[in-house]
Specification:
The complex is a heterodimer. By secondary structure, chain A is mainly α. Chain A has helices spanning 10-49, 78-89, 96-103, 110-120, 137-143, 160-171, 182-185, 198-229, 234-248, 251-265, 273-297, 301-309, 314-342, 346-350, 371-379, 385-415, and strands spanning 54-63, 128-134, 175-179. Chain A has 16 helices and three strands. Helix content of chain B is 74%, strand content 1%. Classes of the chains: A mainly alpha, B mainly alpha.
Chain lengths: 419, 496
């Protein structure tokens, strides 16, 4: 019998199938790598943020007499009162140097905290009370296990004596870890145990407000003009080329524009949400215009023709019929654009929004910083405790962005119409 | 603050004028109706028949009045809006123009006054005086800290500001009054208020569209203007071809080590090295995951993986920078040490790899689109010839999608070149001209940030250099984007 022509050779076929399997494996590996990177990134940041949400507090006894206090409770020398209470706890500490070392176990903000506590509870005066006050960041790190007591003394942030004092406080059950409300309620500070994101969050919200105020109306108007009204000519072509080009300009160049035009030329105040918002508005504008045009284009022509047929003017057709139908799509695009702007840092560095600002901004012309810039500032701080604080700020930013994007997706799902 | 109060008042006036406009048009209509009733006696009607309206008068024997002459052109609402716009817009335009020009006018007046106070002053001393006057006026500098002459300047400056704060509302209000009178007189039965308003609305839309052009123009002009001033201090050939970058300018004259060098080549080399490393990470992972998702994956896997990649795209770059600086760079350094290599803790490798992670979703989603755009018939044809799936992908789909994929890669490169935060946080600051990815290099964007976020004095070559780098960056990304567009236009096949 004649051998069949080897069109399909078994060995070749096997090799081809192996190549097929290998290729498929590459794909699986790529997907696996991308997912693993995402999980690692989010996991590492989430894990390192956990310590920032709690802080260590030290309970100290106070027995203040009304006769010793000034009329306005906050005017007392609370630093001295605090020091006295602390030294009473450790009668064995005698030398100046040791006393100073002991004082460093408490946060610099502890005296303020104490004053507020007493001002809020005037009944504390005249009775024996135990007040919990924030510990210093080194104390806190030790409690969280970030400082190894087996290391030689010179390599540690805390000395042997300080560790002994901490052990004594713990034995007396005067040390407790509590939810660190300052992370959410305080402004920026040089001390990690006093620093919080509230100022930056307000700055971010004010900046986003300015961005939205400028980019949304201008974006919608431009989109309506280009999509519905403009004749097709050189002028509108030029506008379109410009919009597409602006969408691809690196964000830092917008920062340079803001510095040269808004600050140096128009002399708007530096480091303010006003300037930052304007820069981000220019950056967001092309995103909104492109999204709004797509949304307007998806409204079927029959609606236009019907409205024109019953005698509506061109603008009435747009404002009464097309725009309401396109609005969910426009808003989805806008939220995505704003979410991108909310995570942007580089252009804001150019207009000075990375300053160290303790006060919470109340106005768009107050000096302020934004959440991503705050993350950048903290990330550059060499102090160890800022590491977890930075991670905590990142988690808050990501939750904020996730919320915005989820709103956009929800909006799209709820109102999207298929014609 | 008083300005926003004034604008709110203006808005209130506009709302009030809206109702005045409504009242006016209604009274005009009422007059017209009574006039016609006098002209056309109402014909007694038969039972059940509607009374004949004044416009249907052809049968009454009187001269016919055409309906278009007596019918109200626009509904009341538009007349009110017309009046409100004429009250609100002219003063608002004035205020906007004024706000844009005021700093120049006040600066000019202050300068001339200071020259009369001090006699002749050098430009530098004059600028210092102006800054001091403004600082005292804003309250950021205590009044007793400056000389008596400067205090005179402050008093003058305060006087200018006060005068302007009175003059502006007066002129603006008179604009509003004139606008009101003009518009109020025009309200009439046949006045096409709606058309006027639509015209104004369309002009606003055109203005909004032009902002896109203005922004581009603003970018190019401001960058070019500052760059030209930079080239006045540093020769263009040194900037483009110089091999040394150390932008330290002497603050005092004769300071040691303050010569300053502005050769951009090391920055460009650093930028391209980091971009190249990023592409080595992003292109294989992004492309393979796009191929797998569109050709192999089941719907379930797609539903899970696609959002994950989109999350990767939505993470702010400052987060990637933190991740790179805190975990990736030390990890790479330890790995290198384990292998006997010395890696800088700000190595190009770490920054490039994290940037690659950031770029993955760009490549993956753009390639996914192009691969999905290849028609199914091509896949079916290849399958019919006996090709395996991977052979179809490699020999049919990828060649067909190649222009789109190339343009995706170019767009990704343009993103990588312009990316700032990752390199600012993870790459170096010192400009090394090296091809070794284990060493620290710096990039164009890092230098822009470094030059503009420290203590900056205006007009120094250091500050201006940032704008020259910005212009370089702008043109590089622009060229890449145009190239990407060209490739798609020229080489992509149309299968329809």
């Amino acid at each position: 019998m004649e051998k069949p022509t080897p069109y399909i050779r078994a060995d070749l076929l096997r090799r081809r199938y192996r190549a097929e399997k290998r290729f498929r494996l590459y794909g699986v590996v790529a997907i696996f790598l991308a997912s693993a990177i995402l999980i690692t990134l989010l996991g590492a940041i989430a894990f390192s943020s956990i310590p920032a949400f709690t802080h260590t507090y030290i309970g100290l006894d106070f027995d203040l007499q009304a006769g010793d206090m000034t009329e306005n409770i906050e005017d007392n020398n609370w630093h001295a009162i605090l020091r006295k209470a602390l030294y009473q706890q450790f009668p064995e500490v005698k030398t100046r140097r040791d006393k100073r070392m002991l004082g460093k176990l408490l946060s610099i903000g502890a005296a303020d905290r104490l004053a507020h506590k007493f001002a809020a509870n005037p009944s504390f005066v005249g009775q024996k009370v135990q007040v919990y006050l924030p510990a210093s960041d080194d104390f806190d790190l030790f409690i969280k296990g970030a400082i190894d007591r087996t290391l030689p003394e010179s390599d540690r942030l805390l000395s042997d004596k300080q560790i002994a004092w901490i052990d004594k406080l713990r034995a007396q059950a005067r040390v407790k870890r509590q939810f660190a409300s300052h992370v959410f309620l305080a402004g920026d500070s040089r001390e990690p145990e006093l620093a919080g994101i509230k100022g930056a969050l307000i700055g971010s919200l004010l900046t986003m407000f300015v961005t939205l105020l400028f980019s949304l109306p201008i974006g919608i108007m431009a989109a309506i003009y280009l999509q519905e009204i403009a004749p097709k000519n050189r002028f509108t072509d030029l506008i379109e080329v410009n919009i597409n080009n602006l969408a691809a300009v690196p964000s830092i160049v917008f920062g340079l524009l803001g510095l040269a035009v808004f600050i140096n030329f128009f002399q708007l105040p530096r480091s303010t949400p006003l300037v930052g918002g304007l820069v981000l508005a220019l950056m967001t504008l092309p995103v909104i215009i492109i999204a709004a045009r797509a949304a307007l284009a998806s409204v079927p022509p029959s609606i236009r023709e019907a409205a024109l047929g019953v005698g509506a003017s061109r603008l009435q057709v747009i404002l009464h019929h097309i725009l309401p139908l396109a609005l969910p799509g426009i808003l989805t695009g806008t939220i995505i654009g704003i979410a991108r702007a909310a995570g942007e840092t580089a252009p804001l560095l150019m207009v000075g929004m990375l300053a160290f600002i303790v006060d919470k901004p109340a106005n768009i012309t107050d000096k302020a910083t934004v959440l991503p810039a705050q993350i950048y500032i903290w990330a550059n701080n060499p102090e160890r405790a800022f590491e977890s604080l930075t991670s905590a700020a990142i988690i808050i930013l990501l939750v904020f962005l996730l919320f915005m994007n989820a709103t956009a997706i929800g909006l799209r799902k709820r109102y999207q119409k298929r014609w | 603050m008083s300005l926003s109060l004034y604008i709110m008042t203006l808005f209130g006036l506009a709302v009030f004028s809206y109702f005045l406009g409504l009242k006016r048009i209604r009274s005009v209509v009422a007059q017209q109706v009574t006039a016609q009733q006098r002209l056309v006696p109402t014909v007694p009607t038969e039972t059940g028949q509607a009374p004949i309206s004044p416009t249907d008068t052809t049968e009454t024997g009187h001269a016919p009045i055409s309906p278009t002459d007596t019918k109200q052109h626009s509904v009341d609402h538009f007349h009110g809006l017309f009046l409100a716009l004429y009250v609100f817009l002219p003063p608002m335009l004035l205020i906007i123009i004024w706000q844009a020009c005021a700093p120049f006018v006040t600066n000019y007046l202050l300068e001339t006054q200071l020259v009369t106070i001090f006699g002749t002053l050098s430009q530098g001393a004059l600028n210092i005086q102006i800054a001091q006057v403004k600082a005292v006026y804003n309250g950021s500098l205590a009044a007793h800290m400056v000389s008596e002459q400067t205090t005179l300047g402050v008093a003058y400056y305060a006087r200018i500001q006060q005068t302007f704060s009175i003059i502006l509302p007066v002129i603006a209000t008179s604009f509003a009054v004139v606008g009101f009178m003009f518009a109020y007189r025009r309200i009439a039965l046949r006045f096409p208020a709606r058309r006027h308003i639509e015209k104004i609305a369309i002009w606003f839309m055109i203005a909004a569209s032009v902002i896109a052009i203005l922004a581009t123009l603003g970018i190019i002009l401001s960058l070019i203007f500052e760059t030209l001033r930079f080239f006045g201090k540093v020769p263009i050939s040194e900037f483009l071809f110089g091999l040394h970058w150390s932008p330290q300018i002497a603050i005092r004259e004769g300071q040691a080590g303050g010569a300053g060098a502005f050769g951009a080549i090391p920055l460009l080399v650093g930028t391209f090295m980091i971009t190249l490393i990023a592409m080595f990470v992003a292109v294989p992972i992004g492309l393979m995951s796009a191929i797998y998702l569109s050709e192999y994956a089941t719907q379930n896997i797609r539903d899970f993986v696609k959002p994950a990649i989109e999350i990767l795209a939505g993470i702010p770059t400052v987060v990637y920078g933190f991740f790179a600086a805190l975990w990736v760079a030390p990890f790479m350094r330890d790995m290198g040490a384990a292998l006997g290599l010395t890696l800088s803790s700000e190595s190009a490798l770490a920054a490039g790899m994290v940037m690659g992670i950031m770029i993955i979703p760009i490549i993956s989603s753009l390639s996914d689109d192009v691969i999905n755009a290849v028609p199914q018939s091509l896949r079916d044809g290849a399958a019919a010839l006996g090709a395996t799936k991977s052979e179809t992908v490699k020999q049919v789909i990828l060649p067909a999608a190649l222009p789109g994929i190339m343009s995706a890669i170019l767009l990704a490169i343009s993103r990588a070149i312009g990316e700032t935060m990752i390199v600012v946080m993870a790459a170096g600051v010192a400009a090394n001209l090296t091809a070794n990815p284990f060493e620290a290099v710096t990039t164009v964007t890092v230098q822009i940030v470094v030059l503009l976020t420290g203590d900056q004095e205006f007009d120094s070559a250091k500050t201006l250099a940032a704008f020259a780098l910005g212009l370089l960056l702008f043109f590089m990304t622009l060229a890449l984007n145009i190239l990407a567009l060209r490739i798609v236009r020229k080489y992509s096949e149309n299968y329809e």
